[in-house]
Write a structure and sequence with these properties.
Rossmann fold; six-stranded mixed sheet; alpha/beta; disordered C terminus; disordered N terminus; globular; 8 helices
């Protein structure tokens, strides 16, 4: 019992939000990261949550929150105590790219997400016409809008797993963890994350 308690006491929990417009591929990505498999998913009404343990003794709890317009109003209920943000973009949906950018910029202005490091996933790279990482970086003006935090843009495909080796090979990749949690390590914060269902009131 003592050894078990000691082992778990060394695991640092981290809360990561996975946000983005509906149909960006968030839930498919979540389950690909968790199970290394592809599942048929429906539009998320509410949220999905999974815990992924890494090789760096960090247990990452990923909150995948629905991206429909009516759900975006409730995103703010999940911001508190977030250690990282994964923002998923459909790289092929040029018609809604501006909407995605606007939502992204609103997130950056929220006080709860101040200085929170970001990984922006340019998803659906397997489809024709997908914008690459450099194009997404320019479109979202990452250098300007994320100058106050650590950030990283990763092209990927949730279906084929392309680009996810940098994020996960059954677990989140340590190099990305270093980028995502650099601020957390510098500040030497240790937050213990409970899993309550957030109140849907901003």
């Amino acid at each position: 019992m003592g050894l078990l308690s000691s082992k778990h006491s060394k695991v640092k929990p981290a809360k990561v939000l996975m946000l983005g417009l509906d149909s960006a591929g968030k839930s498919t990505l979540l389950y690909k990261l968790k199970f290394n498999d592809v599942f048929l998913t429906l539009p998320t009404i509410g949220f999905n949550v999974e815990m992924i343990e890494t090789g760096q003794n960090i247990a990452i709890t990923i909150w995948d929150v629905g991206g429909q317009q009516k759900m975006r109003t409730f995103w703010c209920n999940y911001f508190e105590n977030a250690d990282g943000l994964v923002y998923v973009v459909d790289s092929t949906d040029k018609q809604r790219l501006e909407d995605s950018k606007k939502e992204f910029e609103l997130l950056l202005k929220n006080e709860f997400l101040k200085n929170v490091p970001i990984v922006l996933l340019a998803n659906k790279q397997d489809l024709p016409g997908a914008l690459n990482a450099e194009e997404i970086t320019r479109k979202f003006n990452m250098q300007k809008h994320c100058s106050d935090r650590n950030w990283y843009v990763q092209p990927c495909c949730a279906i084929t797993g392309e680009g996810l080796a940098e994020l996960a090979s059954a677990h989140i990749h340590p190099q990305i963890l270093t980028k995502v949690f650099k601020n957390k390590q510098k500040l030497k914060r240790e937050r213990w994350v409970d899993l309550p269902i957030p109140s849907l009131v901003c």
